[in-house]
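ok new one. same drill as before - structure tokens go in, u give me an amino acid for every spot. 221 of them this time. try not to just spam alanines like last time pls lmao
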């Protein structure tokens, strides 16, 4: 009886070791590539998210300016939707803030209970912590007694510029201030526009916000 020998093919130990070594080199190369791409993508994502954040914050404030209702105050100007306001219930400061009023509470505000209408909002810039929104409803019983709530809008706002048009010169020009201009009685003048300066990891973005009175007809230079 003749026995047929089966033809068995396989890898030698040297071939297996070579394959493992090549495989390891490929894995290391692919891992380094993926890590570098992830790092680059992460940096790119941060930049895009930063730009999106600056755009979103600016749009929120500008939209709030546009939706602002007339100041609920008998002494207020009939066309006054933005004004300087001091929170009398806040004993920590006598500073006045650029303020506006909204008929309905925006979604960014967190209430202890259900939201109320007629919200007085003020922009507060803190050099160390960023841009905040001070707010409280006029319908709250302690509106004139308690300090306002404080909500962080952006920790990346590192500067605010106030832009005024100097009409005293023959050719009016923009006058840029780091603090609001004041009248002789120390009251603040309303600028034509403000500029928010966002900074993140050395990158700077400036967003210009036109105040409503400019939108109503004041010429832009």
């Amino acid at each position: 009886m003749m026995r047929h020998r089966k033809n068995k093919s396989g890898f030698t130990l040297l071939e297996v070791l070579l394959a493992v070594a090549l495989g390891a080199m490929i894995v290391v190369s692919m891992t380094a590539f993926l890590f570098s791409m992830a790092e680059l993508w992460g940096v790119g994502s941060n930049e895009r998210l930063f730009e999106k954040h600056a755009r979103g914050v600016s749009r929120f404030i500008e939209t709030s300016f546009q939706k602002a209702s007339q100041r609920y105050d008998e002494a207020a100007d009939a066309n006054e939707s933005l004004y300087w306001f001091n929170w009398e219930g806040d004993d920590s400061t006598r500073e006045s803030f650029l303020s506006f009023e909204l008929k309905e509470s925006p979604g960014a505000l967190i209430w202890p209970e259900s939201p109320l209408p007629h919200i007085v909002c003020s922009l507060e810039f803190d050099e160390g912590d960023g841009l905040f929104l001070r707010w409280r409803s006029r319908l709250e019983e302690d509106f004139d007694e308690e300090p306002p709530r404080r909500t962080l809008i952006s920790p990346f706002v590192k500067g605010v510029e106030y832009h005024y048009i100097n009409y005293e010169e023959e050719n009016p020009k923009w006058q840029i201030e780091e603090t609001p201009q004041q009248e002789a009685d120390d009251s603040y003048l309303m600028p034509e526009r403000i500029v928010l300066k966002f900074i993140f990891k050395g990158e700077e973005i400036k967003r210009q916000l036109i105040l409503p009175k400019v939108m109503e007809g004041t010429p832009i230079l």
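Confidence is low (pLDDT under 50) at residues 1-7, 25-41, 214-221. and btw The radius of gyration is 30 Å.
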